[in-house]
Specification:
Number of helices: 2
Oligomer: single chain
Number of strands: 10
Shape: globular
Order of helices and strands: EEEEEHEEEEHE
Radius of gyration: 15 Å
Structural class: mainly beta
Length: about 160
């Protein structure tokens, strides 16, 4: 059986440990959304107990996009404190963001937008222009600026919404 995702609930809220993939191409970022989510977010998901962040990211990309992609480098560890729009639960989330290489994945050949199914769940993918992110319903907010100014080195940050 699959290892347990590193997420748990307490009386005060929820904790999540996640990884996200940043695919950039011609000043656009690959974003996604599903039927449960009104906003766009990056491909990725939760890390399982005993799994490295890198392996978790590769597993999620295989599940969501059916690709295997090279990690270029880690960009951010974001410590996020927010109330989830969907269910109203206070969430403390650690997320590692990795810059990815789209070469050899076939992603670019799929067009400006495409749809994939993961089981019953429908995922819409779209290449969003970075200059349009300010006007889009897109989380986390720091990426609206951050994706246009990638850090030179791995950066620890926090975001309280």
């Amino acid at each position: 059986e699959a290892a347990m995702d590193i997420t748990f609930h307490t009386g005060e809220g929820r904790f999540n440990y996640r990884v996200c993939a940043i695919f950039l191409h011609q000043n656009k970022v690959l974003a996604m959304r599903d039927e449960r989510s009104p906003y766009y977010y990056l491909p990725g998901g939760r890390v399982a107990l005993g799994e490295t962040a890198q392996d978790a990211l590769q597993r999620e990309l295989q599940e969501e996009l059916d690709i295997s992609a090279r990690i270029q480098r880690p960009l951010w560890l974001n410590q996020a404190f927010f109330t989830e729009d969907v269910d109203g639960e206070f969430t403390h989330e650690l997320c590692l963001y990795f810059l990815m290489d789209a070469a050899g994945t076939g992603l670019l050949e799929r067009g400006e937008s495409f749809t994939r199914y993961e089981g019953q769940r429908r995922h819409e993918f779209i290449w969003l222009p970075l200059e349009e992110l300010q006007d889009k319903y897109f989380y986390p907010l720091f990426l609206k600026e951050g994706l246009s100014h990638l850090p030179d080195q791995f950066t620890l940050r926090e975001e309280v919404e």
